[in-house]
Structures are given as C-alpha cells and as structure tokens.
Amino acid sequence: MKLIHKVETQFKQEIWESLKDDGQRSHFVWKDSIDHLYHMLQGMSEYKFKEINYDALITSILFHDIGKLAEYDYAGKSMDIFNFLYPTASFEDTTRKQAGIAMDPLGVTIGHIPYGVLVLSRVIEHNQITISMEAIHLMSHCILCHHGLPEWGGSAIRKPLNLEGYIIHIVDYLDSRYENTEADHEK
To answer: Which residues form the signal peptide (predicted)?
Structure first.
C-alpha cells in the first residue's frame, strides 16, 4: 500500500508538471500504474498466509534479466553465453562485429526471459548444485513471470502464482517505470 501511495504521488506530480508546462508533456510514465499495482496486490492477497522463500526470491532477482546477455548484441560480446548454454552446438558466424547495442539475431528468437531460466538451469547443472525440484520450479516461475503479463514483453506465465512471483514482477515493473522517469529528466 505504501508503494501504491508513492506511485500515486509521483503520478500526481507528473500531472501537475504537465499543467505548469501548458500541457506540452505528452508522456506520463506512471499512467495506469496505480490500477496495475492494485490488481497485483489483489492477486497477492490469495497467498497472504504463505511464507516467502527469500533464497529463491533473491536468486530469481539475480537471474531474471541475465538472459539479456544472450538477447542483445553489444560491443565486445563473445559467444561465451551461447557456448555455455549450448556446449555441443557449432557456430558458423564468428566474424560478427557490433559497435553499439542491438538485438542479437539469435538471442531475439528466444528472448531474455526463457534465457534466464536456461542460464539458471545450466548454472545448477554445471556446478552440480543439489537443490529441490520445488525450488528450481519456484525460481524458474519467478524468472518466467517477472514481466507480469504475456502482453508485456513476453512473460511466459499468465500471471504470478506465488508471492515471490508477484514480488519480482512488482519490483521489475516499478524499476522499469523509474528508469523511464530518469530518461525524462535527462531530456
């Protein structure tokens, strides 16, 4: 509820600033965020008596965007991430040169969300980490649902199905909105 109140305050500030700028502001970062956060809070209430698995939550947070190493192409990128994920695959194009940041032709076919789960699985396998099947599924679920809804950038899960999934989605959602406010201030 405190987060929703903060977001509401920021949205009111955006509206106020647009009124002072004679309505020139065309982009409201926090628009529709309050309704979405209330929707997520309502969904979380279904799990209000469940314990949070903090180890799985923190691990999921660390891995949720790691798949961007494969999804994006950037200056200095090596094929190490693909070699790690697919150790038996052969690569034909080794002369790729990137000067900026763009979508990787291979990486975009899968996307960072599934790649995050693949990296997590490979790390567990590569390091021979003993972990319960439930914990692997919990962390995979959190990574797969961190965008919240399928229509929002490829979330592979219809909606979070546990507190950890809701938490990682809400944190990622607020972070993406906050990054947009920082970009607006730089303009």
So the answer is: none
